[in-house]
User: Which sequence fits this backbone?
């Protein structure tokens, strides 16, 4: 349950924001603070000053009653050539995106003459800088629905991929190839799901290199925010933090304009990482109990979806540790079998 923050004192800072047309406006309107939404084609620059209180109210406007809570899935995977195991190029990804649009009725998202994504209803498929495919799912009511959505998405991309000799890998970090080998695209619960132990064909020293990377990717906006664990944490504290983060860009005249002003990681110990008076595994056990209890009360028989997570917490062995064991034993210190092991 969201706690409305106290009214901020002072409010000396002033900002210019984007205002949506009246027909698309929701929530509070004074100063143009509206419910969160991406830039729209109709957006115009607003010149009325906006206070810190308005920004707090903007976040409050996104709170929903329990009956409107939904589940949203992000599903990211690496595409690779089945024959060579090499990362796929943009022209191959372009053909998959075009094929999905033509065969499964997705709408293309273009940047100039390049297709960079797809959308269908409240779902979208985006293209990450390293060529990863990411499904951003629709807001759904049950885990059964989001499971069906992901399975439908995988069926579609596999149907196109198999015709082109392309597979998709379910792992948290590119396991074999160096950054220089990865084509750059046109215009980026961690402990339990730690699953990126390989880099450039060998163990990288982490169970979740994917998380470690964020400790030195953009230190202005990456990593864990310690204050979110304070009992007094609320929207105002987050706004104070956000105001000090340098900008990336502004959106003007249908273009992104560069305005760059310029840690959280799961270490080698994974679930054995010390946390407060115990370990991350102890916290995971409590979170899992809450998740099971909540799903049981929902009445949709969704607890089965926690089976894999339950096994990780019960044994203390993460997916990354299982992969490392295979690497040292069955795979005889060769990372290539991961492309078959984790192929969708």
Assistant:
């Amino acid at each position: 349950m969201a706690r409305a923050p106290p009214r901020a004192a002072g409010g000396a800072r002033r900002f210019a924001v984007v205002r949506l047309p009246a027909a698309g406006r929701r929530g509070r309107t004074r100063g143009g603070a509206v419910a969160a939404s991406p830039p729209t084609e109709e957006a115009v620059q607003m010149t009325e000053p906006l206070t810190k209180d308005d920004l707090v109210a903007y976040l409050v406007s996104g709170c929903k009653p329990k009956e409107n809570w939904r589940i949203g899935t992000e599903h990211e995977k690496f595409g690779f050539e089945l024959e060579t195991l090499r990362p796929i190029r943009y022209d191959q990804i372009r053909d998959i995106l075009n094929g999905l649009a033509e065969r499964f009725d997705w709408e293309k998202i273009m940047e100039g003459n390049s297709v960079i994504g797809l959308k269908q209803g409240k779902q979208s498929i985006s293209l990450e800088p390293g060529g990863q495919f990411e499904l951003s799912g629709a807001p759904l009511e049950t885990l059964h629905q989001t499971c069906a959505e992901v399975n439908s998405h995988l069926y579609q991309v596999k149907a196109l991929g198999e015709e082109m000799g392309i597979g998709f890998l379910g792992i948290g970090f590119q396991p074999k190839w160096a950054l220089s080998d990865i084509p750059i695209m046109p215009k980026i619960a961690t402990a339990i799901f730690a699953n990126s132990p390989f880099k450039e064909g060998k163990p990288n020293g982490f169970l979740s290199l994917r998380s470690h990377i964020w400790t030195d990717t953009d230190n202005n906006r990456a990593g864990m925010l310690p204050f979110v664990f304070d009992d007094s944490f609320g929207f105002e504290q987050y706004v104070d933090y956000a105001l000090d983060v340098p900008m990336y860009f502004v959106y003007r005249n249908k273009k992104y304009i560069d305005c760059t002003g310029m840690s959280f990681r799961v270490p080698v110990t994974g679930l054995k990482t010390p946390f407060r008076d115990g370990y991350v595994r102890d916290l995971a056990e409590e979170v899992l109990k809450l998740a099971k209890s909540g799903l049981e009360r929902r009445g949709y028989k969704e607890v089965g979806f926690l089976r894999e997570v339950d096994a990780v917490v019960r044994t203390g062995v993460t997916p990354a540790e299982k992969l490392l064991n295979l690497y040292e034993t069955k795979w005889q210190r060769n990372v290539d079998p991961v492309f078959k092991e984790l192929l969708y």
Summary: Residues 102 and 213 are 36 Å apart (CA to CA). The two ends are 37 Å apart (CA to CA).
